[in-house]
Specification:
By secondary structure, this protein is mainly α. The longest helix is centred in the middle third of the chain and has 13 residues.
Length: about 110
């Protein structure tokens, strides 16, 4: 799933609704990292790949994200999760894994 901020903006601009004149909440990097389950490097890798909304530069050395963009990303992620299966049944036992060292233990002792 690639997140396209421009697509989101054009779809809202085309609608007949008037844009809200209320200020939007902006989140700094620390606040965004508190909301997502990954670290800074992963955040910027996902932005680079187009998997996370791009930040907005609010000054030469400061970036922020609109809270609405983060909420849209979370909702899109929840809707398009290919790994989610509500009917999935987990096994009650783990499969036994046999290692090389286990095989060495089972060898009969030399006489």
């Amino acid at each position: 799933m690639i997140y396209d901020r421009n697509e989101q903006l054009t779809s809202t601009a085309i609608s007949d609704e008037q844009p809200s004149l209320e200020p939007q909440k902006m989140l700094i990097e620390a606040e965004v990292l508190a909301l997502v389950p990954f670290k800074r490097a992963t955040l910027y890798n996902m932005i680079k790949k187009g998997l996370f909304p791009r930040p907005v530069h609010i000054s030469p050395n400061r970036v922020a994200w609109f809270a609405s963009d983060i909420v849209r990303w979370q909702n899109a992620l929840a809707e398009a999760d290919p790994h989610f299966n509500p009917n999935r049944i987990r096994s009650k036992t783990r499969r036994a894994t046999v290692t090389y060292y286990d095989l060495e233990k089972e060898k009969p002792a030399p006489r």
